[in-house]
Amino acid sequence: MKMKKFTACLTAGVLSAALLAGCSGTPAGKAESAPDKNPAQSHSETATEDARFDDTFLAMDTVMTVSAFGPKGQAGVKAAREKIEALDALLSTGSETSEVSRLNAEGGGSLSEDTLALAKASLALYEDTDGAFDISIYPVMKLWGFDRLDDLSADNPDIPTKEELAETLALVDAGELSLDTENSVLTYGLPGMAVDFGGITKGYASDTVIHMLRDMGIRHALLNLGGNVQALGAKPDGSKWRVGIRYPDLQSSDIVGIVSVENKAVITSGDYERTIPGTDYHHIIDPATGWPVENGLRSVTIVSEDGTLADGLSTSLFVMGMEKAEEYWRSHREAFDVIFLTEDLKLHVTEGIAEDFKPADGYKMDIIS
Ligand code: ADP
Ligand code: MG
Predict the structure, then answer these.
(1) Residue 270: nearest ligand to its CA?
(2) Cα(338)–Cα(316) distance, rounded to whole angstroms?
(3) Where is 340: in which H helix or E strand?
(4) pTM for this one?
(5) Of the bound ligands, which one is closest to the alpha carbon of residue 132?
(6) N or C, which end of the chain is more exposed by having fewer CB within 10 Å?
(7) Separation of 188 CA from ligand 1 center, angstroms?
(8) Max Cα separation, the chain?
């Protein structure tokens, strides 16, 4: 396990964590790691409060970096990875043996503790977002081919027909899912329904791990789960973590701004993350139409103490579009803040986070109040 001096900022919405030295406005591609602070130290229990331990690994189809500080840092990083891998095994739609695959094959069934928590949060969001967040979207994801992107060819993208979409959309309605919280049982109301927690899983994972690390006595930690960032405390030197918001194109390493946070999740949904080869069709689907959302937004970043909520809302507000999303924020402003990036590459930032957000050179921002 390596220990490094931490100097850093991270880029939300990227596949790999970028550790930037003095990173104000610095593109993630220019990232550089700081030299090891104390490489000889091997007994983590004697490590100082600012000693950093980290691990980078693949899980949930993305690159994850977990960093934790202090005497419990090494144990924290190990426990974090184990928890994330366990959640991946439980929730992966791509694995036949996952709990989610079992539920989808059997039209529901009993839920483990984590799946119950995710189902509760997802169904509450479905109600609260007027159906913008709908975990029963999975049959439509499959129809588009998002479950087999590697097999699709750019020459023959195989876009669903109107008839196929209409038929498949008939299975999409989280209102037909009934959750018995007492007995931890989920029942699907329509034959052929299937769920996917992909719009909320990484935020739930980061939130769960942050609570676990705090309970272990760790005071400073940072998780970057494929661009979904969540921080425990501030940096060991007391300053805030700096998280970059990426330019909405995976080919670019530019950032459009930096948000400074402590004890918060910073989670982005964008139209550039996963697309059908040869097209711009991306993986956030409007449950009302079955089509990838196209409403003038390029990305939505949610900043909140609650990682699960931040992830669910990044997807939901992207689906709602700017106007409805602003309204939603106004009626829930205590719970979260938002950074919208529109197709003209302007930033629109809610007032709760405005002081902690800095647009990169050349980008304009307005404040939503
Ligand atoms: P990422 O997974 O890249 O961080 P999101 O959090 O926005 O991005 O999640 C996108 C995933 O959410 C999709 O891959 C799909 O599994 C799921 N999804 C897509 N549309 C919806 C929707 N309207 N409601 C709930 N989940 C959705
Ligand atoms: Mg999300």
Answers:
(1) 1
(2) 12
(3) strand 337-342
(4) 0.91
(5) 1
(6) C
(7) 20
(8) 64
* Cβ pair 115, 208 in contact under 8 A: no
Q: Which residues pair with 69 in a beta bridge?
A: 52
Give the CA dihedral 102, 103, 107, 112, nearest 10 degrees: 130
Give the SS3 label for residue 283: coil
CA of 10 to the centre of ligand 2 (A): 18
* Pair of tokens at residue 143: 């129809």
- Its sign, for the CA torsion 286, 289, 290, 293, is negative
Spacing, Cα 61 to ligand 2 middle (Å): 14
What letter does residue 174 receive in the DSSP assignment?
Answer: G
Per-residue burial over 135-171, b if 16 or more Cβ lie within 10 Å, else e, is: bbbbbbbebbbbeeeeebeeeeeeebeeeebeebbeb
C-alpha–C-alpha distance, residues 228 and 232, integer Å? 14
Query: What is the four-CA torsion angle of 132, 130, 116, 300, rounded to 10 degrees?
Result: 40
- CA 267 to ligand 1: nearest atom: 4
Residue partners of 337: CB distance under 8 A and separation at least 6: 302, 303, 304, 329, 349, 350, 352, 353
First-to-last alpha carbon distance for the chain, in angstroms, is 45
From 127, 289, 315, 341, give the residue whose CB has the most ligand 1 atoms within 8 Å, as the site to mutate: 315
Distance between CA atoms of residues 238 and 246, nearest Å? 25
Tens-digit pLDDT profile for residues 14-47: 333 333 323 332 222 222 233 344 443 446 788 8
69, 51 contact by CB (below 8 A): yes
CA distance 60 to 85: 8
pLDDT digits (tens, 9 = 90+) for 218-241: 999 999 999 999 999 999 999 999
Beta strands 347-350; 365-368: pairing state? parallel
Q: Is 92:241 a contact under the CB 8 Å cutoff? A: no
